[in-house]
Amino acid sequence: IQPQSGLLLELFFLEKDNRYTLKEDFIIDKLWPDHSGNDKRMHSAIGRLRSLLKKIDPSFNIINKNGTYQLIIPEKTPFHEIAKNVDEMGIFTFLLDSILQKIMLG
């Protein structure tokens, strides 16, 4: 998982109490603290993460609504339980990276 996608995914999981929803301005501020971000770059970053997640499970989705993005986690996958119980994002990132490597490498 690329660092930017990993950070974006962590940001979504930090908002689990807010239904995994992020405001667009928040995403831009966090991904580009040097203020080089814009809507186009943000939409591209979201698209890359969405594509990556859909490779894991096509029912993953990230939806855009009213100036926010929401990560939709399919309940039938182990990720749903991991997401509900993650206390430290470093652990989740490690687990996700390990799973992605196994999927991509066969």
Describe this structure in words.
By secondary structure, the chain is α+β, with helices and mostly antiparallel strands. It has helices at 3-14, 24-31, 39-56, 78-85, 89-105, and strands at residues 21-23, 61-65, 68-72. A three-stranded antiparallel β-sheet has the order 1-3-2. Helix 1 packs across helix 3. The longest helix is centred in the middle third of the chain and has 18 residues, at 39-56. The two termini are 16 Å apart.
Please give a quick description of this structure.
This protein is of the alpha+beta class and 106 residues long. The protein has helices spanning 3-14, 24-31, 39-56, 78-85, 89-105, and strands spanning 21-23, 61-65, 68-72.
Q: Rough shape?
A: globular
Structural category is alpha+beta
Q: Sheet bearing the most strands, described?
A: 3 strands, antiparallel
Sheet with the most strands: spatial strand order: 1-3-2
Q: Fraction of residues in helices?
A: 55-70%
Radius of gyration from the CA trace?
A: 13 Å
Question: What is the strand tally?
Answer: 3
Strand coverage percent: 5-15%
Low-confidence stretches: none
CA-to-CA gap between the ends? 16 Å
Helix/strand order: HEHHEEHH
Number of helices: 5
Overall pLDDT metric: 82
Keywords:
single chain; 106 residues; alpha+beta; 3-stranded antiparallel sheet; 5 helices; 12% strand
